[in-house]
Design a protein that fits this description.
single chain; mainly alpha; 0% strand; elongated; disordered N terminus
């Protein structure tokens, strides 16, 4: 009598679970990289602290009226006669060079800064990740050409290139989206390289080779097997880059080619306050402090996610 044979499908091709995952499987819990990472993140104080800070900043950015009753976008709230006054009742951060409330402008300035950072991060992750997935999985001419194109973009300094792009399209009335476009055009190659390297590593694994031998299509291999196993480093880099994009927006606004009045951003506030810094330092200090806290929060979040997703760091 011949032994029964069992048909293996591509969905059943997975890598051998680690001891930690086998332990969770025995306990009846789902075992995966993401569940292990979430279990690890919940025990990290740095992750909790950064998540709380980011949650507060998000609420402040999209519902600023919860934090202040003054609308700095209304010119009637500014009094030129009280310009550069120090902190007082009702104006805890004082007033700026135009007599506007610094606290209210700092709260409302969070929206543009965070919106630019988040939008740029999403665009670079999608564009760079998709192109890196295609180049890494296809190889050959596609990989060679895309890699050479990426090297051209890497040769352009981000701030200098973004300065040129925003200055060129400054009169097109594109608002904050010209800043998003400038940063995204010059930043996707980093995500491309990380995704490409992760895909090249994953495509040589046994479960991918077996899936290909069983006749799985190229699209199924890319999105079913390669993408889930190459996504972790992209998420880590995207989280850390988000803070960098917020800082880059502030630099462009400080140079006069980023967010333009009457819109508000922290970089624009710092640029407006620099001329009278020695006379009235608070209008510059407070938006700079909020900018630093925001960038630090996203970098801390990225570091925590990186440590949780890297088994070597556990």
């Amino acid at each position: 009598m011949q032994p029964e044979t069992q048909t293996v499908t591509t969905d059943q091709l997975t890598t051998a679970p680690s001891p930690g995952k086998r332990r969770k499987q025995k306990e009846g819990k789902p075992a995966s990289l993401w569940s292990d990472a979430w279990h690890d993140l919940r025990r990290r104080p740095m992750f909790i602290m950064s998540l709380v800070l980011i949650a507060i900043l998000m609420v402040m950015a999209f519902w600023p009226s919860l934090f202040t009753s003054i609308n700095p976008l209304d010119a009637r709230t500014c009094e030129l006669a009280t310009a550069r006054q120090g902190p007082s009742t009702g104006h805890i951060f004082g007033r700026d060079n135009q007599g506007c409330d610094v606290y209210a402008r700092t709260i409302y300035g969070a929206k543009n800064s965070i919106l630019i950072g988040v939008t740029t991060t999403i665009i670079t992750a999608i564009v760079g990740g998709l192109l890196g997935l295609i180049a890494g999985s296809r190889g050959g001419v596609v990989d060679t050409v895309s890699s050479r194109v990426t090297e051209v973009f890497f040769a352009i300094p981000m701030i200098l290139g973004a300065l040129l792009i925003t200055a060129t399209f400054r009169g097109q009335d594109m608002g904050i989206w010209i800043v998003v476009m400038a940063l995204a055009v010059l930043s996707w190659p980093m995500t491309f390289r990380i995704m490409r390297a992760a895909v090249i590593t994953a495509r040589s694994q046994d479960f991918v080779v077996a899936a290909r031998a069983l006749g799985a299509s190229q699209g199924r291999i890319m999105f079913r097997h390669l993408l889930p196993n190459a996504l972790a480093p992209v998420i880590v880099v995207a989280t850390i880059n988000l803070g960098g994009f917020i800082a880059a927006e502030a630099a462009l606004s400080f140079l006069g080619v980023g967010v333009q009045p009457p819109d508000i951003s922290w970089g624009l506030m710092i640029a407006d306050a620099r001329s009278r810094f020695l006379e009235a330092p608070l209008p510059l200090v407070f938006p700079a402090v909020f900018l630093s806290i925001t960038v630090l929060a996203f970098i801390m979040l990225g570091d925590a996610v990186r440590d949780a997703l890297d088994p070597k760091l556990r």
